[in-house]
Amino acid sequence: MKMTKSIKLVSLASASLLLAACGSDDSADSGDEKLGEKLNYTITGIEPGAGITATTERALEEYDNLDGWELETSSTAGMMGQLDSAIDNEEPLVITGWTPHYMFEQYDLKFLEDPEGVYGEPEFVHTMAREGFESDMPEAYAIMDNFSWEVEDMQGIMLAAQDMDFDEAASNWVEENQDMVDSWTEGIDEGDGQELELGSYPWDSERASSAVLSQVLSDHGFDVTVNTVDPSILFQALAQGEVDVTAAPWLPTTQGAYLEEYGDDIVDMGPNMEGTVIGVVVPEYMDIDSIADLKPAE
């Protein structure tokens, strides 16, 4: 009979205890039978409302070898703090991860193979709007419909924002990529100061895109407010017309459940980025390559 897998909220204090439990003795050799014990049979996650959190909960059920493992959620910042410490001490750590993210610029990391296919294929980031947005603000709709960029663009802003605020990093990116920005706005009339509610998530990837779009839309005559909320709240707000537009949703896996729930009342404008990946991530120095290699709790 399978042991129960649960999701637990953890504080920074318990995160510190987790790192202490990992220890440093021979920890880079993570292929031994004691890896799960060193990690307290824990995968370190991010916010409870994140799509990758729900997907990892499903992975705990799909993989028989993960009996007794748990997903501990905290925040993206909390997870990054644990990753920084683990890398500094060359200790083992298993986290939920995704690209684009600046951690892949900072450290040598790898996704574990997912033979059960729980995390799906590489995903797309979509632009979505409330019903009536196109008729109410056709110029803003056209800009958002034209918006498209690459993983490397977003990741570059995220990395730059480690040394400055996101608005400055986005402004520098816009200046350096003016030809791309012009392709989003070319031939579109200026707005007339209309107020626009741009939805986003509290993660660095979406802070990057919302900072860029806020600047581009503001420069084109719109009064932009960025509303940063968890995915479930954003989808509901779009469906209820409380947010005008967003460039944040990851599909089909990460936030697919929310689209199924609210999609009838939301306009999906299509992908603005392709090639995003979610899954289970470990430092490159760990001697493990697949989720299936993890051992069940004794």
Q: Supply the CATH class of the largest domain.
A: Alpha Beta
Quaternary structure classification: single chain
Integer count of domains: 2
Distance between the termini: 13 Å
Q: CATH fold name of the largest domain, please?
A: Dipeptide-binding Protein, domain 3
* Silhouette: globular
At the fourth level of CATH, the homologous superfamily of the largest domain is Dipeptide-binding Protein, Domain 3
Please give the number of β-strands.
11
Decide which structural class fits the backbone: alpha/beta
In percent, how helical is the residue content? Answer: 25-40%
The major β-sheet equals: 8 strands, mixed
If you compute it from the alpha carbons, what radius of gyration comes out, rounded to the nearest whole angstrom?
20 Å
Q: Low-confidence segments, ≥5 residues, pLDDT <50?
A: 1-31
Give helix and strand order, one letter per element, not per position: EHHEHEHEHEEHHHHHEHEHEEHE
* Count of discrete alpha- or pi-helical segments spanning 4 or more residues: 13
At CATH's second level, what is the architecture of the largest domain?
Roll
User: Strand portion, in percent?
Assistant: 15-25%
Mean pLDDT: 89
Describe this protein's structure.
Keywords: Cell membrane, Membrane, Signal, Transport. Residues 1-20 form the signal peptide. One of its GO terms (cellular component) is ATP-binding cassette (ABC) transporter complex. GO terms for molecular function: amine transmembrane transporter activity; carnitine transmembrane transporter activity. Pfam families: OpuAC. The protein has 298 residues and is α/β, with parallel strands linked by helices. It has two domains: 7-120 and 278-293, D-Maltodextrin-Binding Protein, domain 2; 123-276, Dipeptide-binding Protein, domain 3, CATH 3.10.105. The protein contains 13 helices and eleven strands. It has helices spanning 12-22, 35-38, 51-62, 76-88, 103-106, 133-136, 138-146, 151-160, 166-176, 178-185, 204-219, 231-239, 256-262, and strands spanning 7-9, 42-44, 70-73, 95-99, 109-111, 123-130, 195-200, 223-228, 245-246, 250-251, 266-283. Strands 4, 5, 6, 7, 8, 9, 10 and 11 form an eight-stranded mixed β-sheet that branches. The chain has a three-stranded parallel β-sheet with strand order 1-3-2, with helices on one face. Helix 3 links the parallel strand 2 (42-44) and strand 3 (70-73). Helix 8 (151-160) crosses helix 9 (166-176). The protein is globular, with a radius of gyration of 20 Å. The two termini are 13 Å apart. The relative contact order is 0.21.
